[in-house]
Specification:
This protein is of the alpha/beta class. It is built from 9 helices and 11 strands. A hairpin with a 6-residue loop joins β8 and β9. α1 packs antiparallel against α7, α1 crosses α9 and α3 runs parallel beside α5.
């Protein structure tokens, strides 16, 4: 059975959790105190049938969005009267939505602490008059960051929804495995993981053939993160076929450094070669007294330098994180 594949999947989740970071939450009362500010006249109004989206974050030291913007104040003002219409804060996944807002012209702002403020014009139109539905992806930057905060309209909401449903099934079965005991995997659960992975891989190959890599502009940040986890759980042959595409997306700044590191290490280890970034752990029954064991690493002396270049923590921190996540009682 695919016991080793299970460990790869769980190690992948551990790395994703380890480097993820959140913007601190901001009290709702503070959101209602935000004042109207006029958007730049050069910004074209976003025409939407629903005002919803997600906020993501990258600090000045990060090249990619690696954090979810939770607790971000998102406010809506009437463009005509400049009065406050509604305010919400993003949830623990960075999502926001305005409900029961009548059609009209508004100004949307997004703000939290030391982050640059996003101010954009939004036109809410009836669903029957709208074309293809879109949602907003808010890219937030710190005030001292020379890169500016910006907004991406997400265009393929149906595909995003499908990817999120696929990853929900993927994660549900893997959580069952964790709860049943990772040291002695349940064969029935392993068989179900194998079936789900095969089905998801076929669908991902079809999606990539039709659209190319599903990036944030197509399916949003959460959609593209879901897509990455799904291909990370694909078979080795499929991953080798995708490696040129993943390398291209990484160089273009679309695929994040941590995701690229996870993917290339996965392919290298399955090829029987040393990994580059040290993200791949051995099966749990090969750990020693709860201490993680990793597959061989090329030029391990300089691995932390390479890890830093792609936005990963040090190897020592990663080992400790794995140990605490899967063997918290070990000394």
């Amino acid at each position: 059975m695919r016991k080793n594949a299970l460990v790869v999947a769980i190690s992948t989740l551990a790395v994703l959790i380890a480097w993820g970071e959140n913007v601190p939450a901001r009290p709702q009362s503070k959101c209602s105190q935000i004042k109207y500010a006029a958007p730049d006249i050069s910004i074209e109004s976003y025409r939407l049938s629903r005002i919803e989206g997600q906020a993501v974050y990258a600090s000045t030291s990060q090249k990619w969005e690696l954090g979810i913007g939770n607790g971000i104040c998102v406010t809506l003002f009437s463009r005509k009267s400049k009065g406050l219409v509604a305010s919400v804060t993003t949830d623990d996944k960075g999502r926001f939505e305005f409900v029961n807002v009548p059609p009209g012209e508004y100004v949307l702002t997004a703000f939290a602490g030391d982050l640059q403020q996003i101010i954009i014009p939004v036109e809410l139109i009836p669903a029957r008059k709208a074309g293809k539905s879109q949602r907003l992806l808010l890219h937030l930057r710190e005030k001292e960051d020379k890169r500016k905060s910006y907004v991406t309209p997400v265009t393929h909401l149906a595909l995003r929804k499908e990817l999120l449903a696929m990853i929900e099934r993927d994660q549900k079965i893997r959580n069952e495995m964790i709860h049943s005991g990772v040291d002695h995997p349940n064969r029935e659960i392993l068989a179900r993981i194998d079936m789900i992975d095969r089905r998801n891989t076929l669908r991902m190959k079809s999606i990539i053939k039709e659209y190319g890599w599903p990036g944030p502009a197509l399916v949003g940040w959460d959609g593209t993160e879901a897509a990455f986890l799904l291909v990370q759980h694909a078979d080795h042959r499929t991953q080798k076929e995708l490696l040129p595409l993943m390398r291209k997306e990484y160089r273009a700044g679309i695929l994040s450094g941590p995701n690229y590191a996870l993917f290339i290490d996965h392919v290298l280890v399955d090829d029987g070669r040393p990994q580059v970034y040290g993200s791949r752990a051995r099966p749990f029954d090969e750990w020693e007294m709860g201490e993680p064991r990793l597959y061989p690493i090329e030029d391990e002396t300089n691995v932390d330098k390479r890890r830093a270049e792609v936005g990963l923590s040090s190897l020592a921190e990663y080992r400790e994180f794995l140990k605490q996540m899967y063997h918290p009682k070990s000394k």
